[in-house]
Amino acid sequence: MKLFERLTRRAKENPRRIVLPEGAEERNITAANMILADGLAEIILLGNPAEIKKTAARLNLLHIDKATILDPKDEKNIDKYAPLFFELRRKKGISMEDARHFTSDELYFGCLMVKAGEADGMVSGAIHTTGDVLRAAFQVIKTEPGIDTVSGAFLMLLPEDSPYGTDGILVFADCAVVPEPDARQLAQIAVCSARTARDVAGIEPKVALLSFSTKGSARNERVDKVIEATKIAHEMAPELCLDGELQSDAALVPIVAALKAPKSDVAGKANVLIFPSLEVGNIAYKLVQRLAGVEAVGPLLQGLAAPVSDLSRGCSATDICKTIIMTANQAIHE
Ligand code: ACO
Q1: pTM to 2 decimals?
Q2: 333 pLDDT exceeds 90?
Q3: Does the C-beta of 150 come closer than 6 Å to ligand 1?
Q4: Going by CA atoms, what residue is nearest to atom 34 of ligand 1?
Protein backbone atom coordinates (compact mmCIF):
# COMPACT_ATOMS: atom_id res chain seq x y z
CA MET A 1 0.00 0.00 0.00
CA LYS A 2 1.32 3.47 -0.84
CA LEU A 3 2.51 5.67 2.05
CA PHE A 4 -0.35 8.18 1.94
CA GLU A 5 -3.03 5.52 1.54
CA ARG A 6 -1.70 3.86 4.69
CA LEU A 7 -1.41 7.14 6.63
CA THR A 8 -4.90 8.26 5.53
CA ARG A 9 -6.46 4.98 6.61
CA ARG A 10 -4.67 5.12 9.98
CA ALA A 11 -5.79 8.74 10.54
CA LYS A 12 -9.39 7.82 9.75
CA GLU A 13 -9.33 4.88 12.15
CA ASN A 14 -7.80 7.02 14.95
CA PRO A 15 -9.22 10.54 14.54
CA ARG A 16 -7.04 13.14 16.24
CA ARG A 17 -7.74 16.83 17.08
CA ILE A 18 -5.58 19.10 14.93
CA VAL A 19 -5.46 22.85 15.49
CA LEU A 20 -4.87 25.18 12.52
CA PRO A 21 -3.74 28.60 13.84
CA GLU A 22 -3.98 30.16 10.37
CA GLY A 23 -7.66 29.28 10.41
CA ALA A 24 -8.90 32.37 8.56
CA GLU A 25 -6.63 31.75 5.57
CA GLU A 26 -8.25 30.31 2.43
CA ARG A 27 -5.91 27.35 1.86
CA ASN A 28 -6.29 26.34 5.51
CA ILE A 29 -10.09 26.56 5.36
CA THR A 30 -10.14 24.57 2.12
CA ALA A 31 -7.85 21.89 3.60
CA ALA A 32 -9.96 21.74 6.78
CA ASN A 33 -13.07 21.20 4.65
CA MET A 34 -11.38 18.31 2.78
CA ILE A 35 -10.25 16.66 6.03
CA LEU A 36 -13.69 17.05 7.63
CA ALA A 37 -15.49 15.78 4.53
CA ASP A 38 -13.52 12.52 4.76
CA GLY A 39 -13.54 12.29 8.58
CA LEU A 40 -9.73 12.15 8.78
CA ALA A 41 -9.36 14.38 11.86
CA GLU A 42 -11.24 16.77 14.11
CA ILE A 43 -10.30 20.32 13.16
CA ILE A 44 -9.94 23.42 15.34
CA LEU A 45 -9.66 26.64 13.32
CA LEU A 46 -8.25 29.72 15.04
CA GLY A 47 -9.36 33.15 13.91
CA ASN A 48 -12.34 35.45 13.78
CA PRO A 49 -15.40 33.13 13.59
CA ALA A 50 -17.47 35.51 11.43
CA GLU A 51 -14.61 35.96 8.97
CA ILE A 52 -13.97 32.20 8.76
CA LYS A 53 -17.66 31.40 8.22
CA LYS A 54 -17.93 34.11 5.57
CA THR A 55 -14.94 32.72 3.65
CA ALA A 56 -16.29 29.16 3.94
CA ALA A 57 -19.68 30.29 2.61
CA ARG A 58 -18.08 32.18 -0.30
CA LEU A 59 -16.05 29.08 -1.23
CA ASN A 60 -19.08 26.82 -0.65
CA LEU A 61 -17.18 24.72 1.90
CA LEU A 62 -20.08 23.05 3.67
CA HIS A 63 -18.12 20.79 6.04
CA ILE A 64 -16.61 23.74 7.95
CA ASP A 65 -19.76 23.53 10.13
CA LYS A 66 -18.10 20.49 11.75
CA ALA A 67 -14.99 22.45 12.79
CA THR A 68 -14.50 24.05 16.18
CA ILE A 69 -13.72 27.75 15.67
CA LEU A 70 -11.97 29.72 18.42
CA ASP A 71 -10.83 33.32 18.44
CA PRO A 72 -7.45 33.85 20.19
CA LYS A 73 -8.29 37.57 20.50
CA ASP A 74 -11.42 36.81 22.55
CA GLU A 75 -10.78 37.89 26.18
CA LYS A 76 -12.50 34.76 27.55
CA ASN A 77 -10.13 32.54 25.57
CA ILE A 78 -7.12 34.60 26.66
CA ASP A 79 -8.29 34.30 30.30
CA LYS A 80 -8.36 30.53 29.89
CA TYR A 81 -4.87 29.97 28.44
CA ALA A 82 -2.72 32.94 29.61
CA PRO A 83 -2.11 31.44 33.10
CA LEU A 84 -0.62 28.34 31.46
CA PHE A 85 1.72 30.45 29.32
CA PHE A 86 2.66 32.53 32.38
CA GLU A 87 3.50 29.34 34.30
CA LEU A 88 5.58 27.94 31.42
CA ARG A 89 7.61 31.16 30.99
CA ARG A 90 7.61 32.43 34.58
CA LYS A 91 11.31 31.58 35.00
CA LYS A 92 12.08 33.80 31.99
CA GLY A 93 10.71 36.72 33.96
CA ILE A 94 7.58 37.49 31.94
CA SER A 95 4.63 39.41 33.38
CA MET A 96 0.98 38.30 33.19
CA GLU A 97 0.45 41.17 30.76
CA ASP A 98 3.15 39.71 28.46
CA ALA A 99 1.58 36.28 28.87
CA ARG A 100 -1.81 37.63 27.74
CA HIS A 101 -0.18 39.31 24.76
CA PHE A 102 1.56 36.08 23.63
CA THR A 103 -1.60 34.03 24.24
CA SER A 104 -3.58 36.25 21.85
CA ASP A 105 -1.13 35.31 19.07
CA GLU A 106 -2.62 32.43 17.09
CA LEU A 107 0.63 30.39 16.97
CA TYR A 108 1.10 30.54 20.74
CA PHE A 109 -2.63 29.95 21.29
CA GLY A 110 -2.49 26.80 19.13
CA CYS A 111 0.56 25.51 21.01
CA LEU A 112 -1.15 26.24 24.34
CA MET A 113 -4.18 24.18 23.26
CA VAL A 114 -1.84 21.27 22.50
CA LYS A 115 0.01 21.75 25.79
CA ALA A 116 -3.30 21.81 27.69
CA GLY A 117 -4.31 18.52 26.03
CA GLU A 118 -7.17 20.14 24.11
CA ALA A 119 -5.62 19.41 20.73
CA ASP A 120 -3.36 16.51 19.70
CA GLY A 121 -1.25 18.39 17.17
CA MET A 122 -0.81 21.65 15.29
CA VAL A 123 -0.18 22.52 11.63
CA SER A 124 0.95 26.01 10.64
CA GLY A 125 3.33 27.97 8.44
CA ALA A 126 1.29 28.84 5.32
CA ILE A 127 1.68 32.50 6.29
CA HIS A 128 4.19 32.39 9.19
CA THR A 129 7.93 31.73 8.88
CA THR A 130 9.55 28.49 10.04
CA GLY A 131 11.30 30.40 12.84
CA ASP A 132 7.98 31.80 14.16
CA VAL A 133 6.32 28.36 14.23
CA LEU A 134 9.37 26.71 15.83
CA ARG A 135 9.87 29.33 18.53
CA ALA A 136 6.23 29.07 19.69
CA ALA A 137 6.50 25.26 19.78
CA PHE A 138 9.85 25.31 21.63
CA GLN A 139 8.58 27.71 24.28
CA VAL A 140 5.20 26.11 24.90
CA ILE A 141 5.15 22.44 23.86
CA LYS A 142 8.84 21.82 24.62
CA THR A 143 10.71 18.60 23.99
CA GLU A 144 9.86 15.00 24.77
CA PRO A 145 11.60 13.27 27.73
CA GLY A 146 15.27 12.45 27.03
CA ILE A 147 15.49 14.87 24.08
CA ASP A 148 16.40 18.57 24.10
CA THR A 149 16.90 19.16 20.38
CA VAL A 150 14.04 19.41 17.91
CA SER A 151 14.89 18.61 14.30
CA GLY A 152 13.10 18.26 10.97
CA ALA A 153 12.98 15.15 8.77
CA PHE A 154 11.81 14.72 5.20
CA LEU A 155 10.39 11.52 3.74
CA MET A 156 11.85 11.24 0.26
CA LEU A 157 9.46 9.18 -1.85
CA LEU A 158 11.36 7.40 -4.61
CA PRO A 159 9.71 4.99 -7.05
CA GLU A 160 8.62 1.91 -5.06
CA ASP A 161 10.97 -0.34 -7.07
CA SER A 162 13.98 1.93 -6.39
CA PRO A 163 17.07 -0.01 -5.24
CA TYR A 164 17.54 2.63 -2.50
CA GLY A 165 15.75 2.94 0.82
CA THR A 166 12.89 0.64 1.82
CA ASP A 167 9.78 0.45 -0.40
CA GLY A 168 11.20 3.55 -2.11
CA ILE A 169 11.28 5.58 1.12
CA LEU A 170 14.36 7.36 2.48
CA VAL A 171 14.29 9.57 5.58
CA PHE A 172 16.57 12.64 5.49
CA ALA A 173 17.40 14.69 8.63
CA ASP A 174 18.02 17.32 9.86
CA CYS A 175 16.91 19.41 6.90
CA ALA A 176 15.05 22.17 8.72
CA VAL A 177 16.04 23.22 12.23
CA VAL A 178 19.51 22.95 13.83
CA PRO A 179 22.12 24.93 11.87
CA GLU A 180 25.26 23.43 13.42
CA PRO A 181 24.46 20.44 15.67
CA ASP A 182 27.14 19.21 18.06
CA ALA A 183 27.78 15.47 18.48
CA ARG A 184 25.15 15.12 21.21
CA GLN A 185 22.52 16.90 19.13
CA LEU A 186 23.42 14.86 16.05
CA ALA A 187 22.94 11.67 18.07
CA GLN A 188 19.48 12.87 19.15
CA ILE A 189 18.60 13.71 15.54
CA ALA A 190 19.59 10.14 14.56
CA VAL A 191 17.52 8.52 17.30
CA CYS A 192 14.44 10.71 16.62
CA SER A 193 14.72 10.09 12.87
CA ALA A 194 14.69 6.34 13.44
CA ARG A 195 11.43 6.78 15.32
CA THR A 196 9.98 8.90 12.50
CA ALA A 197 10.97 6.17 10.03
CA ARG A 198 9.20 3.51 12.08
CA ASP A 199 6.14 5.46 13.25
CA VAL A 200 5.32 7.59 10.21
CA ALA A 201 7.05 5.99 7.21
CA GLY A 202 6.30 2.47 8.48
CA ILE A 203 9.79 1.17 7.70
CA GLU A 204 12.32 -0.58 9.96
CA PRO A 205 15.11 2.01 10.34
CA LYS A 206 18.70 1.46 9.26
CA VAL A 207 20.38 4.71 10.20
CA ALA A 208 23.56 6.07 8.58
CA LEU A 209 25.38 9.07 10.06
CA LEU A 210 26.91 10.63 6.98
CA SER A 211 30.28 12.28 6.47
CA PHE A 212 32.89 12.76 3.78
CA SER A 213 34.75 9.84 5.38
CA THR A 214 33.95 6.13 5.71
CA LYS A 215 35.34 4.31 8.74
CA GLY A 216 38.46 6.45 9.12
CA SER A 217 39.22 7.11 5.44
CA ALA A 218 39.67 10.83 6.25
CA ARG A 219 40.79 12.66 9.38
CA ASN A 220 39.18 15.93 10.36
CA GLU A 221 37.36 17.42 13.33
CA ARG A 222 34.11 17.29 11.35
CA VAL A 223 34.61 13.54 10.90
CA ASP A 224 35.36 13.21 14.62
CA LYS A 225 32.01 14.87 15.39
CA VAL A 226 30.14 12.22 13.40
CA ILE A 227 32.13 9.38 15.01
CA GLU A 228 31.32 10.80 18.46
CA ALA A 229 27.64 11.23 17.52
CA THR A 230 27.47 7.60 16.39
CA LYS A 231 28.88 6.49 19.74
CA ILE A 232 26.37 8.60 21.69
CA ALA A 233 23.45 7.41 19.55
CA HIS A 234 24.45 3.77 20.24
CA GLU A 235 24.42 4.54 23.97
CA MET A 236 21.02 6.27 23.70
CA ALA A 237 19.42 3.46 21.70
CA PRO A 238 21.54 0.29 21.77
CA GLU A 239 18.83 -1.69 19.96
CA LEU A 240 18.94 0.58 16.89
CA CYS A 241 20.49 -0.54 13.61
CA LEU A 242 22.76 2.50 13.22
CA ASP A 243 26.26 3.15 11.94
CA GLY A 244 28.71 5.91 11.05
CA GLU A 245 30.73 7.57 9.86
CA LEU A 246 29.73 6.64 6.31
CA GLN A 247 29.89 8.42 2.97
CA SER A 248 26.57 8.53 1.16
CA ASP A 249 27.63 5.98 -1.49
CA ALA A 250 28.82 3.56 1.19
CA ALA A 251 25.52 4.07 3.02
CA LEU A 252 23.33 3.40 -0.02
CA VAL A 253 25.14 1.24 -2.60
CA PRO A 254 25.84 -2.42 -1.66
CA ILE A 255 28.84 -2.78 -3.96
CA VAL A 256 30.51 0.33 -2.49
CA ALA A 257 29.57 -0.76 1.03
CA ALA A 258 31.25 -4.13 0.45
CA LEU A 259 34.48 -2.32 -0.40
CA LYS A 260 34.44 0.52 2.13
CA ALA A 261 32.55 -0.83 5.16
CA PRO A 262 32.25 -4.61 4.81
CA LYS A 263 31.52 -5.18 8.52
CA SER A 264 28.70 -2.64 8.76
CA ASP A 265 25.12 -3.89 9.05
CA VAL A 266 23.84 -0.51 7.78
CA ALA A 267 26.19 0.26 4.86
CA GLY A 268 24.59 -0.49 1.51
CA LYS A 269 21.14 -0.77 3.14
CA ALA A 270 20.60 2.58 4.86
CA ASN A 271 17.09 4.05 4.74
CA VAL A 272 17.62 6.93 7.23
CA LEU A 273 20.34 9.43 6.29
CA ILE A 274 21.60 11.80 9.00
CA PHE A 275 23.44 14.84 7.65
CA PRO A 276 26.24 16.47 9.67
CA SER A 277 24.75 19.98 9.45
CA LEU A 278 21.61 21.83 8.38
CA GLU A 279 23.47 23.27 5.40
CA VAL A 280 24.14 19.81 4.02
CA GLY A 281 20.71 18.39 4.88
CA ASN A 282 18.72 21.28 3.47
CA ILE A 283 20.76 21.49 0.27
CA ALA A 284 20.72 17.70 -0.20
CA TYR A 285 16.96 17.26 0.11
CA LYS A 286 16.25 20.12 -2.28
CA LEU A 287 18.74 18.81 -4.86
CA VAL A 288 17.30 15.29 -4.73
CA GLN A 289 13.77 16.71 -4.91
CA ARG A 290 14.50 18.91 -7.95
CA LEU A 291 17.12 16.94 -9.89
CA ALA A 292 15.69 13.47 -9.38
CA GLY A 293 12.02 14.54 -9.37
CA VAL A 294 11.46 12.90 -5.98
CA GLU A 295 8.54 13.91 -3.78
CA ALA A 296 9.83 15.38 -0.48
CA VAL A 297 7.28 15.17 2.34
CA GLY A 298 7.94 17.33 5.39
CA PRO A 299 9.53 18.73 7.34
CA LEU A 300 8.26 16.41 10.04
CA LEU A 301 9.33 18.01 13.29
CA GLN A 302 10.70 15.42 15.68
CA GLY A 303 11.66 15.59 19.34
CA LEU A 304 8.72 17.77 20.48
CA ALA A 305 6.50 16.54 23.30
CA ALA A 306 3.53 16.67 20.87
CA PRO A 307 3.45 16.97 17.08
CA VAL A 308 3.69 20.34 15.35
CA SER A 309 4.21 20.64 11.60
CA ASP A 310 5.56 23.58 9.68
CA LEU A 311 4.22 24.28 6.19
CA SER A 312 6.02 25.94 3.32
CA ARG A 313 4.55 29.36 2.57
CA GLY A 314 4.09 28.23 -1.03
CA CYS A 315 1.93 25.28 0.03
CA SER A 316 -1.42 24.33 -1.57
CA ALA A 317 -4.58 23.22 0.26
CA THR A 318 -3.70 19.63 -0.73
CA ASP A 319 -0.24 20.03 0.85
CA ILE A 320 -1.91 21.22 4.05
CA CYS A 321 -4.24 18.18 3.97
CA LYS A 322 -1.27 15.82 3.64
CA THR A 323 0.51 17.58 6.50
CA ILE A 324 -2.59 17.30 8.70
CA ILE A 325 -2.74 13.57 7.95
CA MET A 326 0.94 13.13 8.81
CA THR A 327 0.64 15.19 11.99
CA ALA A 328 -2.39 13.15 13.05
CA ASN A 329 -0.32 9.99 12.50
CA GLN A 330 2.48 11.38 14.68
CA ALA A 331 -0.12 11.85 17.42
CA ILE A 332 -1.22 8.20 17.32
CA HIS A 333 0.64 6.22 19.96
CA GLU A 334 -0.09 2.51 19.67
N1 ACO B 1 15.25 22.28 19.87
C2 ACO B 1 14.65 22.61 21.03
N3 ACO B 1 14.63 23.86 21.54
C4 ACO B 1 15.28 24.81 20.83
C5 ACO B 1 15.95 24.54 19.62
C6 ACO B 1 15.90 23.20 19.14
N7 ACO B 1 16.45 22.82 17.99
N8 ACO B 1 16.48 25.69 19.15
C9 ACO B 1 16.17 26.65 20.04
N10 ACO B 1 15.45 26.12 21.06
C11 ACO B 1 14.86 26.82 22.20
C12 ACO B 1 15.91 27.49 23.07
O13 ACO B 1 16.36 26.59 24.04
C14 ACO B 1 15.11 28.63 23.64
O15 ACO B 1 14.31 28.17 24.69
P16 ACO B 1 13.98 29.12 25.93
O17 ACO B 1 13.42 30.41 25.38
O18 ACO B 1 12.97 28.35 26.73
O19 ACO B 1 15.29 29.33 26.64
C20 ACO B 1 14.17 29.03 22.52
O21 ACO B 1 14.05 27.88 21.68
C22 ACO B 1 14.68 30.17 21.68
O23 ACO B 1 16.05 29.89 21.43
P24 ACO B 1 16.95 30.76 20.52
O25 ACO B 1 18.34 30.23 20.45
O26 ACO B 1 16.76 32.21 20.86
O27 ACO B 1 16.27 30.43 19.16
P28 ACO B 1 16.34 31.30 17.90
O29 ACO B 1 15.15 32.18 17.92
O30 ACO B 1 17.65 31.92 17.70
O31 ACO B 1 16.24 30.20 16.75
C32 ACO B 1 15.38 28.64 15.31
C33 ACO B 1 15.59 28.97 16.79
C34 ACO B 1 14.33 29.57 14.75
C35 ACO B 1 14.88 27.23 15.16
C36 ACO B 1 16.74 28.75 14.58
O37 ACO B 1 17.56 27.71 14.98
C38 ACO B 1 16.60 28.72 13.09
O39 ACO B 1 16.30 29.74 12.49
N40 ACO B 1 16.82 27.54 12.45
C41 ACO B 1 16.76 27.42 11.03
C42 ACO B 1 15.34 27.37 10.56
C43 ACO B 1 15.31 27.53 9.08
O44 ACO B 1 15.32 28.64 8.59
N45 ACO B 1 15.30 26.38 8.37
C46 ACO B 1 15.41 26.35 6.94
C47 ACO B 1 14.09 26.54 6.28
S48 ACO B 1 12.99 25.21 6.55
C49 ACO B 1 13.03 24.33 5.10
O50 ACO B 1 13.66 24.64 4.13
C51 ACO B 1 12.31 23.07 5.12
Answers
A1: 0.91
A2: no
A3: yes
A4: 131
